[in-house]
Structure formats: C-alpha cells, structure tokens
Design a protein that fits this description.
globular; Herpes Virus-1; zinc; Znf_PHD; 149 residues; transcription regulation; binds zinc ion; zinc-finger; two-stranded antiparallel ribbon; 4 strands
Length: 149
C-alpha cells in the first residue's frame, strides 16, 4: 500500500510542472481583483508566474487569448522573474526583448542583434512553427513552370 502511494506521488511530481498552476483566491497584481472580475468587471481566469506568486488577468497584462494559450505550454515567468531563454540570466534588463507570440525573454546579444527591434518580434522557437513547409513551394514552382510552356 505504501509503495503504491509512493509511486503515485512520484508520478504526479513528474506531471505537475506541466499542469497550469492553480492558486485559489489569487489576485491580479495590477487591478487587485480575483478571477471573478477583471478591470472591466468581467470574470477572467488569472495567469500565474511559474517562479513567484505573481498573478494577473491577461487583459491587465495586455495579453491576447492566443498568447495565453502559448504561455500555458511552458513555465512562463512574470516581468520580475523573466530570464533570457538562451543564457538563463535575468540581468541586462534593458537589453532584453520579448517574443510577441510566446512572451519568452531574449537578450539582443544572445540572438545576435544590435538593438531591440521597434516593431513586432518573434523568437526563433515560434518562427520555426510558423514557417510554411518547403514542399508546397516546390509544387507551386512546378505548376508555374508548366503554365509558362
Ligand atoms: Zn487585473
Ligand atoms: Zn514572477
Ligand atoms: Zn541572454
Ligand atoms: Zn516566441
């Protein structure tokens, strides 16, 4: 019986970090309200930092529904805990930029850039997901060639 329980605990400790963190009675650090109401007075689930007790409404943090889906697939860190995805260091805050698709932090010098880009920026992790398969391009080329003839 006890060995079974131990196995079960070991099993859950492996799975748990991938599960979304659930903190009862958590409060948004921006509007100081719970999941019952956001700054617009509407119910909204809170997101939680994997590193500290900071929580927030995605709307208060200016996060889109898409971004919220993505940050729940990895150990998201709040602005105060954010570290660089490449070197894992939190320093050089003024040279850290954030991916517009996953909110991961990156130092400009860790990805070989001179300065923080002014517009939208997507990290290489997301960029890989969004590049279209090359096979399609090959097919389209063949078609256009036969059309020319
Ligand atoms: Zn809020
Ligand atoms: Zn945090
Ligand atoms: Zn770095
Ligand atoms: Zn990204």
């Amino acid at each position: 019986m006890t060995t079974r329980l131990k196995c079960l605990i070991g099993f859950y400790s492996i799975i748990l970090p991938l599960q979304p963190k659930v903190i009862p009675n958590a409060m948004c650090g921006i509007c100081q309200k719970g999941k019952e109401a956001n700054k617009r007075g509407r119910p909204e689930a809170l997101i939680h930092c994997s590193q500290c007790d900071n929580s927030g409404h995605p709307s208060c943090l200016d996060m889109s529904a898409e971004l919220v889906c993505v940050i729940q697939t990895y150990r998201w860190q709040c602005m105060e805990c954010k570290t660089c995805t490449v070197c894992r260091q939190p320093h050089h805050e003024d040279e850290m930029m954030f991916c517009d698709k996953c909110d991961r932090g990156f130092h400009t010098f860790c990805v070989g850039m001179d300065q923080i880009p002014t517009g939208l920026w997507v990290c290489e992790v997301c960029d890989k997901d969004f590049t279209t398969p090359k096979k399609k391009g090959v097919k389209a080329q063949k078609k256009s060639k036969s059309a020319q003839k």
